[in-house]
Amino acid sequence: MRILILTQKIDANDPILGFFCGWAKEFAKRFEMITVICLQKGECNLPANVKVLSLGKEKPSAFSRKLLALRKIKYIFDFYKYIARERNNYDAVFVHMNQEYVLLGGIFWKFFGKKIYMWRNHHSGSFVTDIAASFCTKVFCTSKYSYTAKYKKTVLMPVGVDTSKFANLENSTVRKTKNSIVFLGRIAPSKNVDVFAEALGLLKKQSFDFAADIYGDALPKDISYLEKIKSRAKELGLENFLKFHNGVPNRQTPEIYNSHEIFVNLSSSGMYDKTIFEAMACGCLVLASNENLRGQIDGMLIIGEREAEEVAERLSMILSLSEEERQKIIFDSMKFAETHSLFNLSSRLVKSM
Q: In degrees to the nearest 10, what's the CA dihedral of 105, 107, 108, 109?
């Protein structure tokens, strides 16, 4: 089968979307030909049977900020140009996260007999999402709490973590720092990073010895949110306990996971962040506020309410575990993470198309 993939960005250096280069490489083993249309293209070494066409966001704009609408019109023009020009080079369409592509191209693809598959995993959605889904043969998501999980045509999929890259390196030169805690991801209110900082303040009051790190960047609209967290961390006296770092390329995150004992994720159940499984695969004790995990990992690691008091209580319990208890949880979590490997995702995806 030959497939057209629509995604936001192809760039191995992107802290959030860098993983998609790995997806494209794995998919290339299972599809005869892949054509990727992305909004922005960066560094990514892909196999010969993968062609990438960018809509050009990475290029300097010839338009002033006041004429941004003209640039968006050019994106749409190039989108239609590419899907029409390449129509004989693909049999099906796979849209990753951006439902707008389905709305723009759905009628065209239907007319030419192309099956449409959309991957969308998020707790929020609207009638616009419903319209996009109506064009699709199937909709894929990873969480049963995703907005898109309600459709009869929806198929639950593995998260898709490259477990050959994300693995426990405890026996190598990388060592986990004792009582170390990490929060890694985009800095945004939906990630509840502020709750994490408040929980660390409570841990400090309880005289726990720990070292915490936050890795991630904020979008322009969320910079004030990040600054408020930094200010609050100072008020809580966390200068010697918590460090803030910029986001790093996805390929560098295995070393970060492998140097920390505990990973915290406070996103909603509708998201099912990939970082949860990356951290598990790297041997971290993962504390998450995600109902999808119930019955899959130790219940102590699942937070019911995203409140600082509960997060602090669970962290104190984890920090108090014996080494034997820790290793048992880590072993079970790593086995569970393996079921969400990129290999399993790729295999399931091909069978579902």
A: 80
- On the 0-12 / 13-18 / 19+ scale of CB atoms within 10 A, 8 is middle
Q: Number of folded domains in the chain?
A: 2
Model confidence over 238-297: pLDDT tens digits? 999 999 999 999 999 999 999 999 999 999 998 899 999 999 999 999 999 999 999 999
**Same domain flag for 205 and 231:** yes
Q: How many CB atoms lie within 10 A of CB 191?
A: 23
Together in a domain, 281 and 234: yes
Kindly state whether residue 225 falls inside one of the protein's structural domains.
yes
pLDDT at 175: 85
pLDDT for 78 equals: 97
Strands (E), the chain: 2-10, 33-41, 50-54, 92-96, 115-119, 138-141, 154-156, 180-184, 211-215, 242-245, 262-265, 285-288
* Separation between Cα atoms, residue 166 and residue 327, nearest integer Å: 18
Looking at residue 64, its pLDDT comes to 57
Taking alpha carbons only, the member of 258, 277, 257 closest to residue 267 is 277
Predicted confidence band of residue 66 (pLDDT cuts 50, 70, 90):
low
Residues belonging to the chain: 353
User: What residues form DSSP beta bridges with 286?
Assistant: 263
Q: Domain containing 307 — which CATH number?
A: 3.40.50.2000
Query: What is the extent of the structural domain holding 42?
Result: 2-161+341-352
Distances (CA, A) of 188 to 142, 185, 193, 222, 337: 21, 9, 7, 6, 25
Question: Which residue, 133, 131, 121, 77, is CA-closest to 96?
Answer: 121
Residues 322 and 347 in one domain: no
Q: What is the pLDDT of residue 165?
A: 94
- Predicted local confidence at residue 174, as pLDDT: 78
pLDDT, tens only, 282-339: 999 999 999 999 999 999 999 988 999 999 999 999 999 999 999 999 999 999 999 9
